[in-house]
Amino acid sequence: MSWPDPVRHASILSTVIIGGGPGGLGPLLWAAQNDRLPGWLEKGVILLERGGRLGGSLGRYGINSDSLGGSYLECLAPDVIPDPMRRLRDDGVTADMALYRDAYPPLPLVDRYMGRIGQAITEIVARHPASEIRLRTEARSVHLRPDGLVAVVASSRDGPAHTLIARAAVVAVGGRQTWRDQTLAPGFPIADCRARLMPSNELLSHEGLAEANEILRTAGDRRVVIVGGSHSAYAVAWALLELRGARQLGDGQLVILQRRPPRVFYPDKAAAEVDDYPVDPGDICPRTGRVNRMGGLRGHGRDIWRRIMARPGVTAETRIAILDMADLGDADLRTLIDEAALVAPCLGYRSATIPIIDEHGRRLALRADADGDSVGDDCRLVLADGTALPNVYGIGLGTGFRPTLAMGCEPNFSGQANSLWLYQNDIGGTIYRGIHEKKAALAAA
Ligand SMILES: Cc1cc2nc3c(=O)[nH]c(=O)nc-3n(C[C@H](O)[C@H](O)[C@H](O)COP(=O)(O)OP(=O)(O)OC[C@H]3O[C@@H](n4cnc5c(N)ncnc54)[C@H](O)[C@@H]3O)c2cc1C
Hints:
This protein is α/β, with parallel strands linked by helices. It is 31% helix and 18% strand. The chain has helices at residues 22-33, 37-42, 69-73, 83-87, 92-98, 107-126, 200-203, 206-217, 231-242, 269-274, 299-308, 330-338, 405-408, 420-424, 426-444, and strands spanning 13-18, 45-48, 132-134, 137-144, 150-156, 161-171, 175-177, 183-185, 188-189, 224-227, 254-258, 320-324, 342-345, 349-351, 356-357, 380-382, 388-394. Strands 1, 2, 3, 4, 5, 6, 15, 16 and 17 form a nine-stranded mixed beta sheet that branches. It is globular. The structure holds flavin-adenine dinucleotide. Flavin-adenine dinucleotide binds at residues 18-24, 48-51, 56-58, 61, 65-67, 138-139, 172-174, 204, 354, 396-397, 418-420.
């Protein structure tokens, strides 16, 4: 492939953003809140989205958000936001979201709201001739050029492949679940189990919950096993118990099989102590004083944990038993899993990827290809050998981004930060600054 001359080529963009879900919108929303969006769009930003709308696909899930409604509304508060976003303050979907300011909105509402945010961003982008939103357009690969620019090869549903040249690319193509390769015991890959397997991603969808309801209704005394001990596992436990079919479950018939207990969110240390929750100093976020701010169960997942653990003020939930994997022998584990009516792997997400090609035409091995963290602290994509790419960034579900303590994170946090609020705030800001610092360096060179 021959590359256009970067100096004479008239349409070198600032940035190509690949993916129009909450992750891809994040840096744009950070810029909007900080009065940087018009300037960025003047330099040329093209967002490529494979689907027909912006805002992602949280609407496919039949559960509630584990972020408060207020966290979604924050991006509309700053005075400096462009008009189309400002008008959203009076939109019906915003009024619906405001009802959940201090509660956990249903994900279909979050999805409707993010769809409207996406429409507002589309209107803003349309005012800047150098920038564009291209729907139904799939990025096929990102090529690193010898001159330091990137080339993104994309094709729209009906049109030919085309190439966009930019100073930076942001890969925001969502996440994928990784349970298939995981083993429960030596020689026992979870995918080999004989029971009906429904990973959390499938189970929490509207169709998945309907099927799970039927399975629970006809389960008899067979167990239902949730594999995992974090957010998805407890969200699944809550969702299953809400189903009509769960009414007939006996004590301990729903099993959460975990390797370690989950961490739980509390607004402060005193609240944790009242709830009998032991707090290690490293669980406390130094910026906010919150306990397990990043890693703790929230929302309905937290509610169900409190009921299982019979915490003060709640009715104890006896239909769920928590088992520690280390306490089960391999044979018992296999029997438990194989004889279950339903097994739900809830083992987290890693980033989806697209091919990144070096200047010699070779596909680079990304750390994310081997289920590692796709980015480092500066949100740059990291190769399998640990090298960070200078001007290709990653954001969104499963990237493995770990906030710094300054961003407001408990020192003991070792998981991933998958949060729309973070995409629109610290993570979006990190990417914006990275792109613009890089641009300044290129201009000086
Ligand atoms: C069940 C569940 C509940 C969650 N609840 C919350 C919550 O309450 N609060 C919270 O903050 N976070 C939550 N998250 C975590 C996370 O913030 C969300 O999953 C969020 O929607 C992730 O956004 P994303 O942009 O990374 O992915 P997606 O929403 O999947 O968006 C990726 C986009 O990229 C597009 N795309 C993919 N490949 C290409 C390509 N090659 N070219 C062009 N476009 C492409 C896709 O069409 C899609 O629109 C939840 C996650 C899950 C799974």
